[in-house]
Design brief:
- The protein is an alpha+beta fold and 145 residues long.
- Helix content is 28%, strand content 32%.
- Strands 1, 2, 3, 4, 5, 6, 7 and 8 form an 8-stranded mixed sheet that branches.
- β5 and β6 form a beta hairpin.
Length: 145
C-alpha cells in the first residue's frame, strides 16, 4: 500500500495529520486522522478537531455542523473503548475487535487509541468489512444521509 500523509507543519512532530492509504491499484481503502497525544496540548487538539470536522463534513455533506461536531465527539470518546496497542491498521494481525462503527451511506467511521495516538478512521463499508465486524459483535450506528 501507499500512504499519503498531510500535515500543516511537517517539522512539528506532534502536529495532527491526515493520511490516505491506497493499495497499488490507486483505490483508497482508509483515511486516518491522527492526533499524537503524547504531552497533550489543547492547541493541537483544537487543530485535530478542526481538521476532523472539515473532513467529516466533506464526506457527510447532509449532516449539520452540530451533527458533525457530535459525530467527532462520539468518535473521539471511542478511543477509550478501542485500545489497539501497537496495531495501527484495521485488519492487521491480532487486531482487537472494534466496539462501534458509525455508518454514513457506504462509509464507516471508527476511532481507536494505539501507540500513543488517537486515530479517527474512515473506511469503505464493503460487504466483507461489514461481515467481519458483525462477526466481532461491532455495534453499528447509522447516520442519516
Amino acid at each position: 500500500a501507499v500512504r499519503y500523509k498531510f500535515s500543516e507543519d511537517e517539522t512539528v512532530w506532534s502536529m495532527p495529520t491526515i493520511s490516505i492509504y491506497a493499495p497499488d491499484n490507486d483505490e483508497m481503502y482508509e483515511i486516518r486522522m491522527t492526533f499524537d497525544d503524547h504531552g497533550y496540548q489543547e492547541e493541537l487538539y483544537n487543530k485535530f478537531k478542526e481538521s476532523c470536522c472539515c473532513l467529516l463534513n466533506m464526506v457527510c455533506q447532509n449532516l449539520s455542523c452540530e451533527e458533525i461536531d457530535e459525530l467527532f465527539c462520539n468518535l473521539y470518546e471511542l478511543a477509550d473503548s478501542n485500545f489497539f496497542g501497537n496495531h495501527n491498521a484495521y485488519g492487521g494481525p491480532k487486531r482487537p475487535p472494534l466496539s462501534d462503527v458509525y455508518q454514513y451511506e457506504n462509509v464507516g467511521f471508527y476511532c481507536y487509541y494505539g501507540a500513543g495516538t488517537v486515530e479517527i478512521c474512515m473506511i469503505p463499508l464493503t460487504a466483507n468489512a461489514i461481515e467481519i465486524m458483525q462477526a466481532e459483535n461491532t455495534v453499528f450506528h447509522s447516520l442519516k444521509a
